Known about the structure:
This protein is mostly helical. The chain has helices spanning 6-17, 21-30, 45-56, 60-72; strands at residues 34-35, 38-39.
Amino acid sequence: xxxxxxxxxxxxxxxxxxxxxxxxxxxxxxxxxxxxxxxxxxxxxxxxxxxxxxxxxxxxxxxxxxxxxxxxxxxx
Length: 76
């Protein structure tokens, strides 16, 4: 099984959108996907993917990287 190089994904996302993972956490909170800095368990991955595609034209791989950061509460 291959591993995902998250820093490379985030560099690509930053180049495309101008936003860091921390920016996406803030935006996700504004959209109601997070509360008190934690990802809401009822939020489905497809909601995140659709938001990122619609607002930032990010594909599934980049969406998975952002979703992973939001869900796991990671700092990048």
